[in-house]
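Problem 12. The chain below contains 724 residues. Write out its predicted structure in token notation.
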Amino acid sequence: MNAVLSPSRRHFLGRSAATAAGLVVGFHIPFDVAAQDGQAPEVNAWVVVKPDDTVVIRIARSEMGQGTLTGLAQLVAEELDADWSRVTTEYPTPGTNLARKRVWGSFSTGGSRGVRESHDYVRKGGAAARTMLVQAAANQWNVPATECRAARSVITHVPSGRTLTYGSVAAAAGKLAPPQDVALKDPKDWQIAGKRLARLDTVEKTTGKQVYGMDLVLPGMLNAAIKDCPVFGGKVKSFNADAIKDRPGVKKVLQVGDSAVAVVADTWWRAKSALDALPIEWDKGPNAKVSSADVAATLKAGLDAPDAAVGNQNGDAKAALAGAPRKLEAVYSYPHQNHATMETMNATAKWTPQRCEVWTPTQNGEAALAAASEAAGLPQTQCEVYKLHLGGGFGRRGAVHDWVTQAVLIAKALPGTPVKLIWSREEDMLHGRYHPVTQCKLTAGLDKQGNLTALHMRISGQSILAAVLPANIKDGKDPATFQGLNPPGPEASFGYTVPNLLIDHAMRNPPVPPGFWRGVNLNQNAIYVECFLDEIAHATKQDPLALRRKLLKDSPKHLAVLNAVADKVGWGKPPKKGIYRGLAQTMGFGSYVAACAEVSVSKDGKLKIHRIVAATDPGHVVNPQQVEAQIEGSFVYGLSAALYGACTLKDGQMEQSNFDTYQVMKLDEMPAVESILMPSGGFWGGVGEPTISVAAPAVLNAIFAATGKRIRDLPLKNHSLKKA
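Solution.
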């Protein structure tokens, strides 16, 4: 099933009513559906102003701890000139979005796009609302709107000093036609955006008031546990429901799809306990003997395969390499990794022949709605998804909504009864959508002076898009594979100037389902490039910083973040005794990032990461505090992956089924992080993902400086760092 089904416009029905006694404002935004219908969508509500002056800002993107909800609210409130102390937020639903011809735009939250791809139209929403509120006040006073000013949710008639609050004119403002064009503020004039404001979701999370999907309780609700065939591609052969039908609380035992069995009970623990006792026989299918060694052998063969899709090239790399006085070659690899979200996959579904409703944490409400609709056998206009805050997403809850499909199929067997499906931790670990596995052979050609004259970078491995969005594969090329390796441009560019360059990809797809994992392909690509550059620097007796500076001469923004971290750590000065440094830089998700790690390695090989200095240029910074938190969180996630993160395949299934076999960083392992924010303006980049990619290569390069050992495959737990 393709979980990202295209909604049919034949199912777009109705028009949503304005909030009673409040203001629902909207504006024209360039979405295709509205344009195709030849009319502007009924103006919605990015902003709702209640009579008590509470400002409700509607956020279509998902909040999963990254702060998008607060950042987008700041942008709207800035243009609205709202009183920030009176601001709150709410999610619109994807069903309402479709019915209103997608007035909120995309509900997808991934690829660090929450702010960078919606900042323009959400700001226009705030500006339009302010214009309408001011006009309503001017109408009441019978004065020109040009004589009025708005600030902190109050409109002032400047000549007379009279004032009205937003709430007092909201109803009148809601009856006005929205302005066709609104001017946006220059970021230098921001008073709310760009400031270190506390997050809007912190208090409820710290008090326990926040309801996550696993907390949800509905009247008459039952609970479900599920077990899918542990072997990828396997199916259910048989199961004996009679063996558990008399266990306490058990209501139903059923097969879900071809490959899973679920138990429904009055409590989740009773459902899970019964499921554990249920005799199930699996048809393990064609992958029952596949191992990580088999996958590695397939990828290794792709390193020298004659056919590959080209992602970036200039000059004639193969000819230049053939004639180079000196060549260097290295092979790196990167494993499968699990998202390991704190909150496992879950959804609550209620199905009747007329309507299906789903409550779930999702990174893409519209994709969740499409999955629910298909599983329910109902048009999307008869379905709805209610989005809840996510206990972690990292890409797992975005493109594929397998748990939503399962929840709806289970609910169909119990019409009219809400059923909450929660995956166990083991189910979550064994049935993820894993970071793709790849290998990479890098070959460098050097002239007699040690200058890099040619580089061939061959990636062999898995394509995410081939599995998730196959329509995006063009001529055998997955463009997402080349993150951080693209030609010069606004997204994921390579940065380094090499006279003869060839970067290509031999697609090899093992049976493990891949998915978008925080940082996606930028993670391994940064390791391959940045660690190999260190190898070149060492082989040619060049300073790693000096080599990078020379190769980045045509990429000033790449160079600027690199120089910033080098200056901050004092690269030209020796570090403290026993401390060693490593550098890395890249560009991805629209932003430029660099890092310098300082590490030590004891005589018995114990690694200590003392400090990481990180620089980020995302163009604009909406909330510096949140950006710094995202950078720190990126290092937690990226270093956890580098130190411990690997999922290995044996007999067709993953060996790691819980945190005892899939470790994460502990508090005492976390280095001090110093963030340098250097927004240069003129573009909007992301901040949730790019910094992850420089975590591992900076540390790996520092480890080489400390030990002389070059680690070319992760995780680090598999390697001894004892000095030879």
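Discussion. The first strand starts at residue 23 and ends at 25. Students who got a different answer should revisit the alignment rule from Section 12.3.
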